[in-house]
TrEMBL record:
Source domain of life: Eukaryota
Pfam families: Lipocalin_2
Domain spans labelled Lipocalin/cytosolic fatty-acid binding: 33-150
Transmembrane segment boundaries: none
Amino acid composition bias (Basic and acidic residues), ranges on this chain: 228-237, 257-286
This protein's name: Apolipoprotein D-like
Keywords: Disulfide bond, Signal
Region of interest (Disordered), ranges: 228-286
Gene from which this protein is expressed: LOC113401371
Originating species: Vanessa tameamea (Kamehameha butterfly)
Signal peptide start and end residues: 1-15
């Protein structure tokens, strides 16, 4: 009776779907390929739970490790503050080989327990219907999720998922849609100032301890180069692209020269005229 009361209290607090009787005998998907199921899945719709009240942008990632383990990472964003909460766990396949039945453990939970889940159906590329049921005595609690590969799945994908629920006679009355709008990615936390300081110190020490052999020989000045006088290179003068116009030559004073030549040429003729007159005067005086 005490266990029945505890189970009923948990069911009421989490607001999962409690029902009388034993868990339904829903057979999980056969020939389930867990490797194709790996990757990111977005929660499109789910049963109402108080634990996820006021949350949005719920994402679940399944990743495999080299050791063969499967890690699970749930990311939930608070609708009021925008802060993201990450809950990590591990997945283990149970049941018959190839059956879509698994156990997911979350060690960080205050009351860690093994939750059993069943993949009722998935096409691996668009949608997956996950179902869970646990019960004690005549009372059982069900939970169900519709997961999609796209954050905002098209209506055709959702119709395919709804058809799976109808085939298993799972009521959609208690399903609520998960808000996947405006899921901005938060920036990475700022780097540690001490880490940046240590990186800068390492770079400086590497530069100081660098061997000289790394410096090219052509860049090291020799003694002869130091003794040689520096030769200053002539700086070429800039020339304009506009051609220079040559100055027009000044005209020569030809008229003046010609007049002087005429005067010189006239003097001998005058001298010739004066000589006969002088000879006549001399003869008259005699």
């Amino acid at each position: 009776m005490l266990r029945f009361s505890v189970l009923l209290l948990v069911a009421t607090a989490s607001a999962q779907i409690p029902s009388l009787g034993w868990c339904p005998d829903y057979q999980p998907m056969a020939n389930f390929n867990v490797n194709r199921f790996l990757g990111a899945w977005y929660e499109a719709e789910r049963y109402f739970t108080i634990a996820e009240l006021g949350t949005r942008c719920v994402t679940t990632k399944y990743e495999s490790t080299p050791e063969g383990r499967i890690l699970v990472s749930n990311e939930i964003t608070n609708s009021l503050t925008g802060m993201k909460r990450v809950m990590e766990g591990s997945l283990q396949m149970i049941g018959r080989e190839g059956e879509g039945r698994m156990i997911i453990k979350y060690p960080a939970m205050s009351m860690p327990n093994d939750n059993e889940y069943s993949i009722l159906e998935t096409d691996y590329d668009n949608y997956a219907v996950m179902w869970s049921c646990s019960g004690i005595g005549p009372v059982h609690i069900q939970n169900a999720w519709i997961l999609t590969r796209e954050r905002l799945a098209p209506s055709l994908v959702m119709q395919s998922a709804y058809a799976v629920l109808d085939r298993y006679k799972i009521s959609r009355t208690f399903f609520v849609k998960t808000n996947q709008a405006d899921c901005s990615i938060l920036p990475n936390p700022a780097a540690d100032p001490m880490e940046i300081k240590n990186n800068v110190i390492e770079v400086i020490m590497d530069a100081k301890n660098a061997p000289l052999s790394k410096i090219p020989a052509d860049d090291v000045p020799t003694v002869d180069d130091k003794l040689k006088p520096e030769v200053k290179s002539e700086i070429p003068q800039e020339r304009s692209a506009i051609p220079e116009i040559a100055a027009e030559p000044k005209p020569m004073m030809l008229p003046e020269i010609s007049e002087k030549k005429d005067e010189k040429m006239d003097k001998p003729e005058e001298m010739k005229d004066e000589k006969p007159e002088m000879e006549k005067e001399i003869k008259l005086k005699q």
